[in-house]
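#struct-help
A.M.: can someone run this one for me? Single chain, 224 residues.
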Amino acid sequence: MTHTVHPYAHRLGIIRDWKSRWFSVKPKYKENLRGDVLIMEYLKKRLKGCFVNSTEIERSAKTFRIIIETSRPGFIIGRSGEGMIKLRGDIIAFMKKHDLSTKEELKIDVKEVKSPESSAMIAAQMVAEGLEKRMPFRRVTKTMVEKAFANRDVKGVKITISGIMGGSNMARIETKKVGRIPLQTLRADIDYAFYEALLPLGKIGIKVWIYKGDIFNKDKSVKP
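D.P.: on it. Structure tokens below:
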């Protein structure tokens, strides 16, 4: 029997790198891991609506760095950097509240995603935004698939939404696919994301797969 695996975790060490990068002796491992999970969950709620693609954490002996990839960097940075100052203060306060280590110097890097439609997480958030605005779910998924597939580097797109939609009383699953999605090929550069849209009748789960071609040994580059 086949097993369902996460497309990102399935390719770790082959064409993907870990989203938390640090080295620690055994006594601090549990503390660091707990801190990374709590901070990522906090930033997911704190930066909702900013179209964040990914959040990565790097630790060194003196520096604690958070790297945020977003298609709306201006929303996070704010005017004259006011948003960054407030975000940094909120993260430090959150770490103190949950008894996380604050000895290292906190640095926040914001990177702009230049092609948001080819990012699975941003595409999922765009679909969720359309559904929360009461737009027809078939139109939303079709439009998003066409926008994503219009990019040159995208060779396949698949979007699946599940939940109570279209005014029905029963949950259903709708899928829209264009191109190829070779999930079993480890060298295939597949971006995957899961997101939830909050509607009055309940949550709608959104899954997005975007295939961007294969990565071979001669041009292999580990992508975050």
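A.M.: thanks! The first strand starts at residue 20 and ends at 21.
D.P.: also worth noting: The chain has a mean pLDDT of 91.
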